[in-house]
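Researcher: I've got a protein sequence and the SMILES for NAP. Could you write out the 3D structure of the bound complex as structure tokens? I'd like something to compare against our soaking experiments later this week.
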Amino acid sequence: MSTPSPTMPPWPAESDHASGWSLVRAAAAAAEAAAAANRPARYALVAATGLLRELAPEEEGGLLAWEPGTGWRCLLPPQDCRQAVADLYLPLCAAHAARPITVAHLGQSLDGFIATGGGDSYYVTGPANILHLHRLRALCDAVVVGAETVLTDNPRLTARLATGPNPLRVVLDPSRRLPATHHVFSDGAASTVRACLAPNAAFTPGAADLVVAERGGRLDLADLVRQLRARGCSRIFIEGGGVTVSAFLQAGLLDRLQVAIASLLIGEGRPALMLPGREPLAHCVRPAARLFRMGEDILYDCDLAASTAAPAAAAPNGQSLQRLF
Ligand SMILES: NC(=O)c1ccc[n+]([C@@H]2O[C@H](COP(=O)([O-])OP(=O)(O)OC[C@H]3O[C@@H](n4cnc5c(N)ncnc54)[C@H](OP(=O)(O)O)[C@@H]3O)[C@@H](O)[C@H]2O)c1
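Model: Sure. Here is the predicted complex with NAP in place.
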């Protein structure tokens, strides 16, 4: 077995995961109040309620700190088993109504595909990444997918593998071509809206129409995001597929982009990101990225607000070569 690295700890055991996840959920629930208070504060977790309690200045310790303008900072020591989970999700937990966040995720092969040409994507990435997807759903107020994903996968888009609520399910179906028999429209597990260009008299019982402005013959995704924010969705998760995530990315609507890379070669499949080309290479975007080992996969968690056109001068920890596992 390889030695755990100081910068990329191995994914913790499931029980450790769970206690870290409780802390993450508490941080997400407390963000609105912490932001409204607009002062630096430290917090402890109250086990009985699962909620955070602000510590008085004279009280020692605390698991998390809130810093106005920045968000959550983890006070756990690096060797604490909850640290990796807190570290991964805290940037999302810091979102609140006045500072919302949109995050997208794709699980792709080494050759850049999210499914075979026929649409088979079960499963590109491993169980740790699938659990992560369910956690993203539980943490976010809305999950958005394209019509092809619903047509091909018939997903439920619930958070059933994680502890937490189901998000509002949003399906991009501009011409309302999807039949109402798909799970998201018929299972009643959570609310669903169908983002379309015009409402149809043929009402779908399980999904309200969300009429979105048109832009170049497509849905204006900025208008969609505005409408979801107006419904109180401070955290929006774009789950796929590649066409949908690429459209949000190209429209400049993503704050974070997560790409999980699996050791898999698909060849001639459904592409992950598709963006217009740029010349020269020096003008291409290099998002600031954190790397997480997630089971057998590697997750790139990119902060798109912190993108540059220049390559990093050196690895942040000064190490240019490191075996992960
Ligand atoms: N590995 C992963 O992370 C992952 C995640 C999700 C899905 N998948 C796989 O990916 C495949 C589907 O992905 P995909 O990239 O082919 O398609 P997709 O993104 O799921 O859906 C694309 C469709 O969504 C609608 N759409 C997206 N953006 C729009 C916009 N701005 N305005 C109007 N409509 C918009 C369009 O519907 P119309 O055609 O009706 O115009 C478009 O054709 C499936 O095989 C699924 O299994 C993989």
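Model: The pocket of NAP is lined by residues 106-107, 114-115, 119, 121, 124, 145-149, 152-153, 172-175, 177, 218-219, 221, 239-244, 247, 270 (CB under 6 Å). The chain has two domains: 14-93, 101-308.
Researcher: Great, I'll pass this along to the crystallography team.
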